[in-house]
TrEMBL record:
PANTHER family: BLL4672 PROTEIN, BLL4672 PROTEIN-RELATED. Residues 34-84 form the HTH cro/C1-type domain. This is Transcriptional regulator with XRE-family HTH domain. It comes from Kineosporia succinea. InterPro entries: Cro/C1-type_HTH, Lambda_DNA-bd_dom_sf, MLTR_LBD. Pfam families: HTH_31 (PF13560), MLTR_LBD (PF17765).
């Protein structure tokens, strides 16, 4: 790895990224252009010290997961992401495999919708990006090991991810959500037959989860669609919301949003979460040199 080149690229792309595009709101005008190192660390899910060491060339072997997280946080175009991988001495993600790249326009759009819980998922239902309202509704996923940060592990696993998912109810029945995820994973294995990680994920669930195996045998084509969901929240009780799954042309991503009709009980509970989220973040020190954090990745 050319450590200096990698650090130079990170600094160069951090300096060009407008904080608003990463979900930060300026409250003062006295700041240098670009994203602060602390903000990049927050968005990428890394420590500030580690980002500093990477930029200074003192950390010389970032993993593919770290490089991918930085590429998403810096909102790199695909060819820039590949350049960052190569500068770290790593092969860029190959065609024919499930891609974790989130186009910059998608990240900017999601970052500007800070009042709506949003999560962005890859085709294997890895959680790639989330905002503070997602944390307020579902909890903070950073405590889940990255290899298990998938909806499959949340529904069918036995590790930390299984404890993360708050109770979800659907009018379609108790297994409707799980069936939709299994059907979409079944479609993904057909689209990405060369992806060994996806194959291992699916075969593991088929061996360890009777529910997954039963649904795998029963489901047909994936039918991703919006539906009403009730989330059992530990602070505000049940919140009934419209959950929609949006897709991105040219990118095999799923953008999951939660909204409620104005004046509904769900809207009132979401408003409460917005207010308490802001208070808790402020109390935790999220106000940083005149910038208030609104988005996460």
């Amino acid at each position: 790895m050319s450590a200096a080149t990698f650090g130079d690229l990170v600094r160069q792309w951090r300096d060009r990224l407008d904080p608003a595009d990463a979900g930060f709101i300026r409250t003062t005008k006295s700041r240098a252009p670009g994203l602060r190192r602390e903000e990049l660390a927050t968005v990428a899910g890394l420590s500030v010290e580690y980002v500093l060491r990477l930029e200074q060339g003192r950390a010389t072997n970032p993993s593919a997961q770290v490089v991918a997280a930085l590429a998403r946080a810096l909102q790199l175009r695909r060819f820039e992401r590949d350049q960052l991988f190569r500068s770290a001495g790593l092969l860029p993600p190959q065609d024919g495999l499930v891609d974790s790249h989130v186009p910059p326009g998608v990240t900017r759009l999601a970052a500007r919708l800070g009042d709506v819980p949003i999560g962005i998922f890859a085709a294997d239902w890895r959680l790639l990006w989330w905002n503070d309202m997602w944390i307020a509704l579902h909890g903070d996923p950073t405590g889940i090991p990255e290899t298990e940060r998938t909806v499959g592990h949340m529904l069918f696993g036995t590790g930390p991810a299984a404890a993360y998912l708050r109770p979800l109810r659907s009018p379609a029945g108790p297994d409707a959500f799980a069936a939709t995820i299994v059907a979409d994973l079944k479609d993904a294995t057909a689209r990405y037959p060369a992806d060994g990680q996806l194959a291992t994920l699916v075969s593991g669930f088929r061996q360890s989860s009777p529910l997954f195996e039963r649904l795998w045998a029963a489901v047909g084509a994936s039918t991703l669609a919006g539906e009403e969901k009730t989330v059992g929240h530990p602070d505000v009780g049940d919140i009934t919301l419209d959950c929609d799954v949006l897709t991105v042309p040219g990118a095999d991503l799923r953008i999951v949003t939660y909204t409620a009709a104005a004046g509904s009980a769900g809207a009132g509970r979401l408003d409460w979460l917005r207010v308490t989220r802001g208070q808790s973040l402020d109390a935790a020190g999220a106000r940083n040199e005149g910038v208030y954090r609104q988005g996460s990745a």
